[in-house]
Amino acid sequence: MPDSALNPGPVVRAALALELGDVRVRGPDALAQADAGALGERIARDLAGFAPAAATLDLITVGAHYDPVELLRPGWPLHREIDQLAARAPGEAGGRVIAFGAHEGRLPGALAPAREHAGGPLRLVPLLLRGDAATTTAVADVFERDLMETGMAGAETALHAQEAFGLVIEHARYLTAHDLLAMTALQYEHAGIAPLWPVLETALLSPTDEAWLDAGPEPLVHYTGGEARIALFSPAAWRARYAAGEADEARLQHGWMHFEARQRQFDAVLRAHAIPVRFDHCPDDADPRSVIG
Question: Is residue 4 a part of any domain in this protein?
Answer without folding.
Answer: no
